[in-house]
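sanity check this record:
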Amino acid sequence: MIVCTLGDTGLNRFAAPTFRKPTAVTGRLAFPYRQRTALSSNRPLGSAEVTHPFHPLRGQRFVVLKVRHVSGIETLSLRHADLGSLAMPRDWTDWAPPGGQASSGAVSLLVDAFGLVALAELLAFFAKNASEVDR
């Protein structure tokens, strides 16, 4: 570890020495890797309404605190008066891109009504044949 009393060096989180460089604007010494990434506190993001067809908070509107990516899914942090903040996928709100499945309710089905009728007929057939075999 390097110790310097002049303040020209600093230690990063991995304890490797980093050297400050004068900035172009002020001429002061600054670390080259520091950059603010937090959202501006005075920039409102607006509100979002829950549009997912089966969500218990559907139809309610919440203030959007921030937008982030969680496991590759764009997620909104919403402010609820009683629950505090909650996370919700963007596709479950009116912020979803056009043609989103959750907001339009057009969820692709595994089995449609005709498939259910065919399945009921098949089960009835097997139940009838099973009772005839036992006799």
DSSP finds two helices and eight strands in the chain. Strands lie at 9-11, 17-19, 21-22, 29-30, 47-49, 61-70, 73-80, 84-89. Residues 3-9 have pLDDT under 50 and may be disordered.
